[in-house]
Amino acid sequence: MQRPVFILAGEPSGDQLAAHIMRSVDDKFGRQAWFGVGGQQMADVGLESLAEMDDLTVFGFGSALSAYPRLLKLADRLVEEVMRARPRLVITVDVKGFSLRFAMRLRRRMAIEGWSAPIVHCVAPTVWAWGQWRAKKFAGVVDRLLCLFPYEPAYFTPYGIDAAFIGHPEAFNPRVETDRTKISRAPHKTVLLFPGSRRSEIDLILPPMLGAIARLRSAGSTVRAYILSVPRLSRRIESIVANQDAEIIINDGDISGHMAKADAMIAASGTVTLQAALQALPGVTCYRTGLFSALVGRCLVDLDKVVLPNAILGRQVYPFMFQNAATEAKLAKSLQMILNDSDAKNTAKAAAEELRQHLTGGKNTFANLVTPALEAWFQRS
Fold this sequence. Notes:
Layout lengths: L4 E5 L2 H18 L4 E5 L1 H6 L2 E5 L7 H26 L3 E5 L2 H18 L5 E4 L4 H4 L2 H4 L7 E4 L5 H4 L6 E3 L14 H5 L4 E6 L4 H20 L4 E7 L4 H8 L5 E4 L4 H7 L2 E5 L2 H8 L4 E5 L3 H10 L7 H6 L6 E3 L5 H13 L3 H16 L7 H8 L7
Parallel strand pairs: 1-2, 1-4, 2-3, 4-5, 5-6, 6-7, 8-9, 8-11, 9-10, 11-12, 12-13
Helix pairs in contact: 1-17, 3-4, 9-10, 9-15
């Protein structure tokens, strides 16, 4: 009987990425017995989940401090599960704070037991935004670091970290084409709102987004707003949207299709900004958090690089407004400029093609990049 594979993800983007990895491994090396922590997309590929994915996610520095004891308890429980199952490989996907603590505790336990499994982490810490000091933390903890962006391995190899570029699965999806002539003749503009995938993000970021739409309408713009939501957040969003003219779209697996039909977006900074850029959707990005988290963030983070398309291309693809700057008035002004720009879509298309060139590494599928990075630990069944 083949040894299982442990894999862990802690938020929707990680769930999607981990599912891509699982599917690629299954196709290349034969069906694996996957167990760990993940969401519905990983479950669809065959994951036996040991905990709720949301248990791994905390919002902001203040929340992280209060959640610390709970997360350590969860990490210890997962370490016990790994030691019991003795998998051939341990893979953690994103949720870097939890993944690092879990890997360190697992390393210590394996040393005590005299048994070990290789540990691979996917999605490198954003040292290019947070600072080089974060790279050192992964040295000696992971056996391989899988990087989504081509410039990242160079940040980690000086510390003896085996880092490999695997590309980004979204870059291999073709841009969805639609009849822009029909859209341009529509009497209204369609704006998508992406307020985040966490409850606290919804509470802080969605209200100014809705306020920006209301200001555009008050100024005479005919705008239709659609909020893209995961099922578990729909009721939370409904309570905020009540009595406002915005439609909620539950994630139906066709986000790219919705993006292709839209004129612009307002998005919380995160993975969705990369997906939007690859689909050539113009827009503006923003983020709001608690006061303590914002203070720490301003001290530690290069705010010019927190929006992924901006960081990858080294220029502003999307304007970014943080904390007090992310007001409904400023969001409305920036969005109105985009909606009035007749060349915005062509500019976005050019950026999309440039991003694809950076993120595909000359390969035609994500599997052609990720499976060579993992093949040392797999054999076809």
